[in-house]
Amino acid sequence: MVISGKVKGLVFNIQRFSIHDGPGIRTTVFFKGCPLRCLWCANPESINPFPEIMFNEAKCIKCYKCINVCPFRAIIQHFDKVIINREICDGCGECMNVCYSGALNLCGKYMSLEEVLNEVRRDIPFYQASNGGVTASGGEPLMQHEFVKELFKIAYEEGISTALETSGHAPWKALSSVLKHTDLILYDLKAVDSKVHEEMTGVTNKLILENLKRASLEAIPIIIRIPIIMGYNIATEEDIHKIGSFLSKLKGIERVDLLPYHKFGEIKYRFLGREYKVKAKPLNKEFISNLKGIIESYGYKTSIGGLS
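The chain above was modelled as a monomer; its predicted structure follows.
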């Protein structure tokens, strides 16, 4: 996004000392906005491409100062509760500024390249000691590909390793522009069955699979990341066989990570005034081990949860 003549990125978190988003110690920049609507999304605050207020009702002390300062009258008192009308809230953050209990927080901040780079540069000694670097994640970072392209270009010039975590749902032009300065691709693959993929994420996987095929020819190592949501994107072991068969036709796949379902993000749906609809159960060790064995049978080094 261009603000005051400069490209700025909409970021909802910068996580330092990350060890699950590529090799070594990394700084992961989480970009806000995603074209997918995965039912199980653990970061629902990453989906919408604009700043949003998160409201933790348990911390609210009922001072109602937020109601008085909201310029859009998007906050009201209903009996003893604070209610946010998210259809008219524009995420200005005025309410957060007077919420001394910390019940209101603004998710999403426009940052310049230099602001993001200054955060990334703080950990250069750790990157050097661990072969780490910076990872662009989301949301979907390719929705802000111009910003990510420039971020990676400068990081490259400064000797900082780069990794891109993506769903692959973006024009090839956007993806290829970022890959010019990318050392590692973390490619999320939910399903190869188009109907299942559309039902679970709201979009077909045609573009995603096409981009993965093209990316596999770029001589950049790829780690495939597969969320295992039993009864949703994975119903039987045959679903994993389909993925393994598809991957076997590609080049450059360094590893496959199986990511078991968890409910860590469920509470954030409530903070955003949304309903968490997934009813999947945590996977048992035997089943996930069987899935690991299936992927390994196609010749791929496979990990569970990103750990070997």
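The domain at 52-106 is CATH 3.30.70.20 (Alpha-Beta Plaits).
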